[in-house]
Amino acid sequence: MKKININSKAHKAAGILPIVEIDNNIYFILGKEKNGKYCDFGGHKNDNETYEETAIREFDEESMGVLYNKNKLKKIISKLPCHFNKKEKYITFLLKLKYDPNILKTYNTLIIRIFQCDNKKIIPYCKNGLLEKSEFKLFTANDILKNNNEQIRDKFLKTFTLLIKNLKK
């Protein structure tokens, strides 16, 4: 994937798509949103944020810092491959992580415990963006593209489809 130049003002939103390799197979870590659909870790920019700042903030908020260290991410984000969905004005950074199944289990267990404390089946409201994802789950590219159980958020599916086409070039 080629590095692209993007005008910082051209984006409306940005996010990070974590990738892991398990037994020579590529998986994407997606988070489950309030609507029950899975997608990457991203969202709309605040005021004068650059696309890198938007992606880092959204990723850190939505993963609650569990998947990757925010300060390390700031140092490497400009080197990460990215894809710009011009129609949606959305930038996706690809972040390859070393797979640790305990991270996913820990996050999912923590969220279950939060639900038990709150005694509700919905994610509690949190003004700073935390607790937006109720579960982390691994998906292959085919799982996402086929979307058999309609588990994938539509906007993310469109961006992911373009991203995969771009990767194949």
Q: What would you say this structure looks like, in words?
A:
The chain is an alpha+beta fold and 169 residues long. It has a single domain (8-162), classed as Nucleoside Triphosphate Pyrophosphohydrolase (Alpha-Beta Complex), CATH 3.90.79.10. It has 5 helices and 7 strands. Strands 1, 2, 3, 4, 5, 6 and 7 form a 7-stranded mixed beta sheet that branches. The model has no long low-confidence stretch (mean pLDDT 87).
List the helices and strands and how they pair.
Elements: E1 13-22, E2 25-32, E3 38-39, E4 41-44, H1 51-63, H2 70-76, E5 82-85, E6 90-96, H3 101-118, E7 136-139, H4 141-146, H5 154-168
Parallel strand pairs: 1-6
Antiparallel strand pairs: 1-2, 1-4, 2-3, 2-7, 5-6
Euclidean distance between termini CA atoms: 8 Å
CATH architecture assignment name: Alpha-Beta Complex
Radius of gyration: 15 Å
**Biggest β-sheet, characterized?**
7 strands, mixed
Features:
169 residues, alpha+beta, Nucleoside Triphosphate Pyrophosphohydrolase, 5 helices, 35% helix, 23% strand, globular
